[in-house]
Design goal:
Elements (H helix, E strand, L loop, with lengths): L3 H35 L4 H66 L4 H33 L6 E5 H16 L6 E5 L3 E5 H17 L7 E8 L3 E7 L34 H11 L3 E6 L6 E8 L10
Parallel strand pairs: 2-4
Antiparallel strand pairs: 1-3, 4-5, 5-7, 6-7
């Protein structure tokens, strides 16, 4: 992964070059004006030189700014690619190494039925982890390309939230009682698959990064103006304020990629933000004012279709 120092170098270089160009422009204009005052009969020539020189230096200034912007974009892209390689490699290596160990054990010695059943269960869990990794990568590609699955329909949000919560709790082997619900009747016109992907990702993060005893609160209510509001609160370590917008980027995760204990690719929140924007909604992350934890807020329009009988 590229270090922060490698990003600061082109920024400093670009700023220094811009300052030098500004100083050069100011000095050149001053000298031209002084020369014009000393030689009034060549005033026209000086004004022409002044105009041409100013345009030339302005073009150089624009070029330096473009260089700075493109350099930052290139470095950020390299960082994203590095994060992708690190995260996917880590996510592939752990379950593959685990399954290899279980298969080698089964092939080299006899084990009783209970231990054999345990090995099979662990290998199935590892396969499920690989399957989720592949599905998330495919979902990210589909979402960014704008391809949609299913038709727009009236989706009961409380029912979908409970179903997604049950699936997430089963995946993380957490009792459903760890999630408390405060749900009001809300209906959103959208594709069920898109809403389910949004809710599964945010609930998965809330449960995965919650405290040792997970405490997650899911709220849903209607707002004026035909909008629906969902808030998901957890008791995890929280996200620093400076990272609360950056975590929506592709492959962005907190900490050093190869030292993390929690599985993931850094695509979940990116998928959430992309889908929410497509639904003309908004998503943001806040801190809990009363202590540790994260608050994720979703706001979506109900998007009721206009009936053909309406004027």
């Amino acid at each position: 992964m590229l270090s922060r120092r490698s990003l600061s170098l082109p920024i400093i270089l670009g700023i220094v070059m811009i300052l030098l160009l500004v100083v050069l422009t100011a000095g050149w204009i001053s000298l031209s004006v002084l020369g014009m005052l000393e030689a009034g009969r060549f005033a026209g020539v000086y004004w022409v030189l002044l105009t041409v020189g100013t345009m030339f230096i302005a073009m150089l200034l624009v070029g330096v700014i473009l260089y700075l912007v493109l350099s930052i974009k290139a470095i950020n892209l390299n960082r994203q690619q590095s994060n992708f390689i690190d995260s996917v490699t880590h996510e592939l290596k752990s379950p593959i190494a685990s399954m290899k160990l279980y298969l080698q054990t089964l092939g080299r010695r006899q084990v009783d039925e209970e231990e054999r059943a345990g090995f099979y269960r662990f290998m199935l869990d590892d396969l499920e982890r690989l399957d989720q990794l592949i599905n998330q990568l495919l979902e990210a590609g589909r979402v960014e390309s704008g391809r949609s699955i299913g038709e727009v329909e009236a989706v009961e949000v409380p029912e979908l939230l409970r179903a997604c919560a049950a699936s997430v709790c089963q995946h993380h082997q957490v009792p459903l009682e760890a999630i408390r619900f405060r749900l009001e009747p809300c209906t959103v016109w959208a594709r069920r698959a898109d809403l389910a992907m949004i809710f599964r990702n945010v609930l998965d993060n809330a449960v995965k990064y919650a405290g040792e005893v997970p405490e997650v609160v899911v709220e849903c209510r209607r707002q004026p103006g035909n909008r629906m509001f969902v808030r998901i609160t957890d008791n995890g370590p929280g996200i620093p304020p400076r990272m609360r917008r950056k975590v929506f980027g592709r492959f962005v995760r907190l900490g050093w990629e190869l030292e993390r204990k929690k599985p993931g690719t850094g695509l979940g929140l990116h998928i959430v933000q992309t889908l929410v924007r497509q639904l003309r909604g908004r998503v943001r992350i806040l801190g809990r004012p009363t202590g540790r934890g994260t608050v994720l807020e979703l706001e979506l329009p109900e998007n009721r279709p206009v009936s053909s009988n309406e004027p």
